[in-house]
Amino acid sequence: MKAVRARWIDRTVGSGLGLLSLAPMVTVVGLAAYLVASATPVFRYMGWRFFTSLQWAIGNQYANHAVVVHGVKVMPDASFGALVFIVGTALTSFLALIAAVPVAFFAAAGSGYFVKGRIRHLLAGLVEMMAGIPSVIYGLWGLVVVAPAVTNYIGPWLNRVLSPIAFLSGPLGSETNLLVAVIVITLMIVPIIAATIRAVMERIPREMIESGLALGWTEGETFWRVVWPYARSAVVGGSILGLGRALGETMAVLMVSGDAMNILPQNLYSAIGTMAATIAGQLDSALTDPTHMALHALGALGLVLFTITVMVNLLARAIVKRASSGVSLAEEGS
Amino acid sequence: MQPSLRTVRISPYRRLGSALWRLVAGLATAVMLLVLLLIFWTVIKGSLPAWSLSVFTTPTSGLSGGLENAILGTLWLGLLTILAVGVIGVATASFAAAYAPVWVREALLFVSDILSGVPSIVFGYVGYLAFVVTFGWGFSALAAGLTLTMLSLPYVVRNTMQAFDKVPVEIREAAKALGFSRARTLWSLMWPHSLSGIATGAVLALSVAMGETAPLLYTAEWSDSLPNLALTHHSVAYLTYVVWTFIQQPYPAANALAYMAGLLLMVVVGAIAFATRFRAMERP
After folding, report:
1. What pLDDT digit, counting tens, does each position of B163-209 carry?
2. In which element (H, E) is residue A80 found?
3. Which of A252, B26, B241, B247 counts the most CB atoms within 10 A of its CB?
4. ipTM score
5. CA A302 to chain centre
6. Which of B14, B35, B41, B125 to mutate to test the interface with A (most CBs of A within 10 A)?
7. What is the pLDDT of residues B5-28, one digit of tens each?
8. Sign of the C-alpha dihedral, residues A145, B36, B266, B43?
9. Domain B54-282 class?
10. Could you tell me the residue ranges of all domains in chain B?
11. In the CATH hierarchy, which fold is given to the domain comprising A84-278+309-333?
C-alpha cells in the first residue's frame, strides 16, 4: 500500500512539475503568436514598403470614416514605414558595439588578468554591478550628464577635430541625439561583454599562464600568447551578446535618442528613433486609433525586433558555449 | 656548452610593451569605474533635496509628494514576481532534472535562451495585449507580475539547472539504488542541496524585475495610491516610472523625486548584484 501511495505522489508531483515546465514554451509561442497576429494586417497593408518607407503616420484620426485598403481597415493617409527605426537601431547598436568591444576587452583584462586575488573579485564585482543597473537610470544619467556634455563640450570639440567628415560633424541639431545614445548604450553593454570575456579568462588553467611566465615572457606577452587564443571566441560571443542587448535596449534610448520620426539622421548630432524606443514611446498614441492598425503596426515593429534579437542572442550563446568548451578541452589536455 | 650564469635581461622594448598592456587595461577598468562613480554621484546629488523621512511615508500626489506608493508597489510587484518565478522556474528545472529524458533539458535551456534575448518592451506589448486586454484584467498587479515573471524566468531556470548539476552524481545514484521515487529524490536530496543556487537565481530575477520599466508601463500603468491586495483592475505604482517620468518634468520637486527613486533602485539592485558576485566568490 505504501508503495502505491508513493507512486501516486510521484506521478502527481511529476504531472504538476511537468505542467509548470510548459511555461517557457507557452511564453515563447504566445509571444510569437501575438506578434505575428498583430503584424499580419500591417504587412498586408504596407507590403515591402514597411521596410523601405520613411513615413510613420497613424492616419487622420479626425476623418469621418476609416478606409479599406488591400482588405485592411485604416484611417486615411496612414503609413507605417519602419525604415527610420531600422536605420536608427542599426546605427546605434553597431556604433556602440565598435566602441564597446575594445573597452570591454581591456576592462576584462584589467580586472581579470592583470590583478590578482581579492582586488580581482572586487573590480569584477563592480564592473558587473554596472550590468545590473536599471536601464532607466542610465537614461537618467544620459539625459542629465551626457547630453549636456555632448552639446557643450564633446560636440564642439569633435566638430573642430573632425570637421571635414560630413557625418561626424555639423550642426548640433538636438541635445538628445545619436551620439548621446551611442555613448550610453556603449557604457551599458561593456559590462556584459567584459563579464563574458572574463568568465572565460578565469577558466584558463593557471599552469598555462605560469608556464608562459616561466619561459621568461613578460605579463603582456603571456597575455597575448596564452590568454588571447582562448579569449578570442569569448570576445566574439560576448560582443554578439552585447549587440543583442543593444538592439533591444528601450528605456535608456527612449530618454536620450531624441525620438525622431519620418527623418533619417543627417549627422552624429541628429535625433534618431529606434524600434524598441518607438514601441514604448508610441504605444500611448497608438491606442487612440479606432481601427487598431497603429497598435498592430507597433506589433509589426516588435516582430522584427523579436526575430532579430532572438537570432543574435542564440548565435552569441552558441559561440560562448564553444569558447568555454574550448577552455575545458585545454583543462583536460594539461 | 657551459650554461651561462648571466641572468636573462628583458629588453626595454618588451618591458614597455607589457607596461602598455597593463596601462590600457588599467585605463579601461578605470574608465568604467569612473562612470559608475559618476552615475552614483549624479543620482545622490540630485536626490538631496528629497532626503527626508516623508519620502517613505507620503505617496506621490501628481508630480510631487513622496515615494511611498512607488516603493511599496515595487516591493509588491517584486514579491509577486519572485513567488511566481521561483515556483515556475524551480518546477521547470526540477522536471527536466528528475523526470524528463535528457533532450528535454537541452530543449528547455534552448527555450530559456530564446526568452532571455527578447527585449523587455516586447514582453510589455504582448503582456498588454494578452493580460490587460484579452484576459480582461486591466492594468493590474497580476498582469505586471506575470509579465515580469515570464521576463525573468530564464535566470531562475538556468541557475537552478546549474545548481542541480552540482549535486554529486553518487548521491543521486544512491537514491536510485535505494528505490527513492523521483519526487522523493527532489524533495530530500536535490532541493536541499541546491538551495543556494536557487536563491541566487531567484534574487537575480528579482533585481531584474525591479529594474524594469517598459513592460510595466503598459501592464501596471501608474497609480497615486498605495498598492492594495487586489490583483486585477487596479494599477500599481513603481519606482522606475518615477525615474522615467518625473525627470522630464520642469518642476524641481519632481526631478528630486526622480533622483531619489533612482538612488533607491541603485542601492537595492546594486547590493543584490554585488552580493551574488561575492557569494560566487566564496564557493570553493
Report:
1. 998 888 898 889 889 888 888 888 888 888 889 889 888 998 999 89
2. strand A79-80
3. A252
4. 0.89
5. 14
6. B125
7. 556 677 888 888 888 888 898 899
8. negative
9. mainly alpha
10. 12-50, 54-282
11. MetI-like fold (1.10.3720)
